[in-house]
């Protein structure tokens, strides 16, 4: 279905353009469009709320929130964000006494049915806590508020650029011969040209001493990494101009074989799976950010990032699917799924996950030492990532 300009809401279009002009610091154009269209980017209460949060005026922020006529749940969640930020800033400045008052008088009543959150916040009192960049920290609060304030009041940050990125991603996902999103232009539709796609071996590289079990590229495709049975990983850089590949880092002597490696979409982090353990690395300096304990009981089969890197999914043969953030915090554990997961894939919209593998019980060990599965045990399953319910499955008679 093709939509014309008349099919879109005029006010929404103008607000998107106004926000983009503001982001590009085109003040005169912003003022001219506001005056000519008689459309404001935001109402006065939202402008005041943003200013109050950026300036750390917490009481005023709460008062302004209460004027927005949010439903009870969204108001409660929004107030929680602000009180938590106030609490953390007081701890960071060394004002523990006032921080305790905020925790006791505001957060505890607000979160009376969420004891785990209260405990986590209380634990911050026991160790030094520092916010390095107040402005950035408060900006994150503003962004998080977008989840609880309707978009006709608070337009999500950089909304037009988000839509443009989605457009580029859509073109890339729906054309077979695009190897790099930099090839996509906003000015023209992408053309499906098979001649632009390489169909011959470009390079042959040798560095590992045993089988290579996994390969992963960065999103911009300028780097890739290989994981091997030789208990090592190698990071490579790609020079497309000179048609060359260079080894830039060799991490080796791990305790066991490296089965999976994956870069985050923002390329700040890469994660490796060594049997049932995850190790999170800083991409810049290759230092270890986090090493998981034995949350998985058997071999990890795959690692998957959401578009925004908010969740890393790890799947394994132990019938578990775990959700992590980029800092190694375990967000959620799917226990006792019905299959031993040998492979997994996120759908393009990141709303579902596809799991493949044999049924849950351990395979039997044949006299010759090989693992034996019955034919009816192999399954393909699709789970909704919001409800975590199985929405489709199929039995497979073959591997």
TrEMBL record:
First and last residues of every WD repeat: 205-239
PROSITE patterns the record matches: CTLH, LISH, WD_REPEATS_2, WD_REPEATS_REGION
Residue ranges of every copy of the CTLH domain listed in the record: 42-98
Family matches, as InterPro entries: CTLH_C, LisH, WD40/YVTN_repeat-like_dom_sf, WD40_repeat_dom_sf, WD40_rpt, WD_repeat-ST_regulator
SUPFAM superfamilies given in the database record: WD40 repeat-like
UniProt keyword terms in alphabetical order: Repeat, WD repeat
UniProt name for this protein: WD40 repeat-like protein
Natural source organism: Wallemia mellicola
């Amino acid at each position: 279905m093709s939509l014309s300009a008349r099919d879109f809401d005029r006010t929404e279009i103008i607000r998107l353009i106004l926000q983009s002009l503001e982001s590009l610091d085109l003040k005169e154009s912003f003022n001219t469009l506001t005056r000519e269209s008689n459309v404001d980017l935001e109402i006065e209460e939202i402008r005041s709320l943003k200013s109050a949060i950026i300036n750390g005026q917490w009481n005023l922020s709460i008062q302004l929130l209460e004027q927005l006529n949010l439903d009870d749940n969204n108001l409660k969640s929004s107030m929680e964000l602000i009180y938590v930020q106030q609490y953390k800033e007081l701890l960071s400045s060394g004002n523990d006494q006032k921080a305790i008052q905020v925790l006791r008088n505001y957060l505890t009543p607000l979160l009376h049915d969420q004891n785990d959150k209260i405990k986590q916040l209380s634990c911050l009192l026991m160790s030094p806590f520092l916010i390095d960049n107040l402005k950035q920290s408060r900006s994150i609060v503003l962004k998080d508020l977008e989840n609880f304030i309707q978009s006709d009041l608070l337009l999500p940050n950089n909304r037009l650029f988000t839509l443009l990125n989605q457009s580029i991603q859509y073109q890339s996902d729906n054309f077979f011969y695009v190897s790099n999103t930099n090839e996509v232009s906003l000015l023209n539709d992408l053309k499906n040209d098979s001649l632009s796609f390489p169909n011959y071996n470009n390079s042959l590289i040798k560095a590992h001493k045993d089988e290579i079990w996994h390969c992963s590229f960065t999103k911009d495709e300028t780097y890739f990494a290989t994981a091997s049975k030789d208990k090592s990983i190698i990071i490579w850089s790609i020079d497309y101009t000179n048609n060359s590949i260079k080894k830039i880092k060799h991490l080796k002597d791990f305790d066991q074989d490296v089965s999976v490696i994956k870069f985050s979409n923002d390329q700040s982090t890469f994660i490796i799976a060594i049997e049932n353990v995850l190790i999170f690395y800083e991409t810049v300096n290759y230092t270890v950010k986090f090493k998981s304990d034995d949350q998985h009981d058997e071999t990890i089969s795959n690692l998957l990032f959401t578009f925004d890197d908010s969740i890393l999914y790890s799947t394994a043969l132990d019938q578990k699917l775990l959700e992590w953030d980029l800092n190694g915090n375990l967000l959620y554990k799917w226990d006792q799924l019905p299959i031993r997961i040998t492979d997994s894939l996120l759908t393009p919209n990141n709303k579902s996950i596809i799991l493949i593998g044999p049924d849950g019980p351990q395979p039997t060990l044949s006299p010759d030492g090989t693992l034996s599965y019955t034919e009816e045990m192999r399954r393909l399953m699709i789970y909704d990532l919001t409800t975590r319910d199985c929405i489709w499955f199929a039995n497979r008679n073959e591997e």
